[in-house]
Specification:
One of its GO terms (molecular function) is acetate-CoA ligase activity. The protein is of the alpha/beta class. The protein is built from 21 helices and 29 strands. The protein has a domain of 129 residues: GMP Synthetase, Chain A, domain 3, CATH 3.30.300.30. Strands 5-4-17-16-18-19-20 form a 7-stranded mixed beta sheet, sandwiched between helices. The protein has a 7-stranded mixed beta sheet with strand order 12-11-8-6-7-14-15, with helices on both faces. A 4-stranded antiparallel beta sheet has the order 21-22-23-24, with no helix packed on it. Bound molecules: 5'-O-[(S)-ethoxy(hydroxy)phosphoryl]adenosine.
């Protein structure tokens, strides 16, 4: 190719835009572009469109009560129950035989729950929870992997008005204890174990160890027997009950759904932030459920007849909103897969798409990068023609991965929605609407109708298109978090203080700060550039560097540690740990292993450092602050930023040499 052609080619790569097919648009749930204006002109009443997707037991008085920002309330006075919206109404509307959940175990076994089956199970487990003493507003912790009992337990909690707090099964015992302590949770539902790459993992052992770290009384623990004969032979303790035995005891029982206020808590979800302690994000019944249902309808284009699959884990917010609450509220069929995408072979996901004729598939960029690495032969060997729409979430998607996904999974025919949102936002905020918008690989898209987002500088002034700045959200939305559990002050300081006039009662003076960097183009499309706080995003999993550091400094022989994210081909970011040893200890293989072990035990395998670099000092400013930016440059092999403000500039080269020696 001549130089000119290469240049042109490169420009085309950058500029490429994609349109949804006429066929997709013709069937889309939302395809009229006037929706943007309609929502803007009719704000906040526009959000009734979301609330109308639910059945309310009592009408709300007001769409939005913004009299006490940033403690916004939505659909105030409205009454509803999330489990009856996700289950009962479909049974009553003649869809009792429609499949609600199709579950695929890693070893190949399958389970199918119709809405009637789900109704029965949710009722029985709700009765069981009540009999264990769970009352309305008690927080029930669910420490469970991807087994059907997890959504059943969530909906059973919702039925009796007991907020759930799901703890990702891959998190450690210590992480479980921290979350139960923080939520004063006296009830736990867990399981004996589960399968990963064909091996049975002992989960109850971890749960028991976690329970030892709970500082208040635990009333009851329910244990699902997932492994059967492959189990680890644990005896259940005095307050531990077998799931199936309880279900038998409550066989056929019905529990009337508790009428919840729109603003009553539906669940808590812990997530990482700047400081060491995870934040308990509080979501409500009316606003959250409306928002999850609305975005599932408008963005994921879900119809009840669809088979829809989100490959996330329910232990994260994506699974809450887009495996459980959104899809089930709309009465569709949601697929759940227990295991890893490369077991037993790298076409497992495509085999599953083919098997269930999946219509809509939603995954993370990290997974797409792994698919690319494994090669197109895997998707090519399967019939993926049932797919109509694809989605991604969790981290920025590079245009190359976007195009691979479009071509090899979507057959250049399926629109892709690149959805930006957070645990705190409850649902999607920035993405194209697949039946309306032009897609630009790499850019998530414009804010959804009714969502008001801007890119600003440190003073809160809007920046020019193309310039990097900070993403802000300038108006509340129904799916937003209401506060951090029992910590209103931290809620304000984490999300609002940066850009708001915190003395003001005027909602216009309050601006939500998601802590992401971003830029906007002339068409109003937003490209997310990544976190601007001390949070790193490993394979779409959000981890606090402080949490990892505190696990590392807890290891004997470690004096100080700094953790940063370094670029990683598949994971997006990987954990780099720079460690100073204590006097008398060597930075040797033994200590490296103990550090990795320490992170494993403190948080879980997802947070394990990719690299541990021992160093005599960390680069510090004269005021003693660690210069993380430089450590990131070193991790990425980038040219080093300015070192002139350092107290010890010579150390950076030394660290750099060590990193090189290791790679
Ligand atoms: C990042 C996951 C770029 C972002 C739903 C955000 C994204 C954090 C995207 C939230 C996207 C999520 N493009 N970055 N489409 N989606 N992020 O709370 O940094 O686990 O702040 O919620 O993930 O992670 P969380």
């Amino acid at each position: 190719m001549a130089d000119g052609d290469i240049e042109l080619e490169a420009r085309l790569e950058e500029q490429a835009e994609f349109e949804p097919s006429a066929e997709f648009v013709a069937q889309a749930n939302v395809s009229d572009p006037s929706i943007y204006e309609e929502f803007e002109e009719n704000w906040p009443e526009c959000w009734e469109r979301a609330a109308d997707l639910l059945d309310w037991d009592g009408d709300y008085d007001e769409v939005l009560d913004d009299s006490n920002p940033p403690f916004y309330e939505w659909f105030t006075g409205g009454k509803l129950n999330a489990s009856s919206n996700c289950v009962d109404r479909h049974v009553e509307n003649g869809d009792k035989n429609r499949v609600a959940i199709k579950w695929e175990g890693e070893l190949g076994e399958t389970r199918t729950y119709t809405y009637q089956d789900l109704y029965r199970e949710v009722n029985e487990f709700a009765a069981a929870l009540r009999a264990q003493g769970v009352e309305e507003d008690d927080v029930v912790t669910l420490y469970m992997p991807m087994i059907p009992e997890l959504p059943i337990a969530m909906l059973a909690c919702a039925r009796i008005g007991a907020p759930h707090s799901v703890v990702f099964a891959g998190f450690s015992a210590e992480a479980l204890a921290t979350r139960m302590n923080s939520a004063d949770s006296r009830y736990l539902v867990t399981c004996d174990g589960y399968y990963r790459r064909g091996d049975a993992l002992d989960h109850l052992d971890k749960a028991n160890e976690g329970l030892d770290g709970v500082d208040h009384g635990v009333e009851s623990v329910v244990v699902v027997d997932r492994l059967g004969d492959d189990g680890f032979g644990h005896d259940l303790k005095g307050n531990q009950h077998d799931w199936s035995a309880l279900m038998d005891e409550h066989d056929g029982e019905r529990v009337a759904p508790v009428e919840r206020d729109a603003e009553d808590m539906l669940f808590l979800m812990y997530t990482s932030g700047t400081t060491g302690q995870p934040k308990g994000v509080k979501h409500t019944t009316g606003g959250y459920l409306s928002y999850a249902a609305w975005t599932s309808h408008a963005v994921l284009d879900i119809e009840p007849e669809d088979t829809y699959w989100c490959s996330a884990d329910i232990g994260w917010i994506t699974g809450h909103s887009y495996i459980v609450y959104g899809p089930l509220a709309l009465g569709t069929t949601t697929v759940m897969y227990e295991g890893t995408p490369d077991y037993p072979t790298c076409d497992r996901l495509w085999e599953t798409v083919e098997k269930y004729a999946v219509d809509i598939f939603y995954t993370a960029p990290t997974a797409i990068r792994a698919f690319m690495k494994w090669g197109k032969k895997f998707p090519e060997s399967r019939d993926l023609s049932s797919l109509r729409l694809l989605g991604t979430v969790g981290e920025p998607i590079n245009p190359r991965a976007w195009k691979w996904y479009h071509k090899y999974i979507g057959n250049e025919d399926c629109p892709i929605v690149d959805t930006w949102w957070q645990t705190e936002t409850g649902g999607m905020m920035i993405t194209t609407l697949p039946g309306i918008g032009t897609m630009k690989p790499g850019a998530a898209g414009p804010p959804l109708p009714g969502v008001d987002a801007q890119i600003v500088d440190t003073n809160g002034e809007e920046v020019q298109p193309g310039r990097a700045g900070y993403l802000t959200v300038n108006k509340p939305w129904p799916g937003m978090l209401r506060t951090l559990y029992k910590n209103d002050e931290r809620y304000i300081s984490e999300y609002w203080r940066e850009y708001s006039d915190t003395d003001s009662d005027d909602p216009d003076d309050w601006v939500y700060f998601p802590e992401d960097g971003a830029k906007i183009d002339e068409d109003g499309y937003i490209t997310i550039l990544g976190r601007v706080d001390d949070v790193i995003n490993v394979s779409g999993h959000r981890l606090g560097t402080m949490e990892i550091e505190s696990a590392i400094v807890g290891v004997e022989g470690v004096a100080e540690a700094a953790v940063v994210g370094g670029d990683h081909e598949i994971k997006g970011e990987a954990v780099y740990a720079y460690v100073i040893t204590e006097d008398g200890y060597e930075g040797d293989e033994d200590l490296r292993e103990r550090i990795i072990e320490g992170v494993n035990d403190g948080i879980g395998p997802i947070a394990r450092p990719e690299k541990v670099v021992f160093t005599p000092e960390l680069p510090k400013t004269r005021s003693g602050k660690i210069m993380r930016r430089l450590l990131e440059d070193v991790a990425n092999g980038d040219e080093l930023g300015n070192t002139s403000t350092l107290r010890n500039p010579e150390i950076v080269e030394e660290i750099e040499a060590k990193v090189h020696a290791q790679s």
